[in-house]
Amino acid sequence: MSGSDAAKSFALGASAVGVAAGASAWMGSAAAGIGSLPWLGLGWLAAALPGVGGGAWLAGRFGRPGAGFLVALGVAMGWRFVAVAAGVAAALRAGDPAPWTFLLGFGAGFLPLAVFEVVWFSRRAKTAR
Prior knowledge:
By secondary structure, the protein is mainly alpha-helical.
């Protein structure tokens, strides 16, 4: 699988996982009347966009010689840290319940995508041998 095919494959799968996780968190929070749905959505976006974008970049660089994969990994993780820090800072200024709702959304966007990344890359590594 070429780098661009791998990136497309990863982005498609990660997008499906991210949307399903975000929709589940949104519906669960709306049904329970928990927090602020816009903050939940912002938290999810802060995790899902770097997860899909950075993961696709990583998938495209995976297995190629050079430091491209490590650079992509560092940028993707940095992007996530900046997104969560900026989001939490804004949510703290907005007051309760925004910070907790933002973090719930971030978790809904981060954890399923992190699991997807681990599974996707481990399968890709096994097929590359």
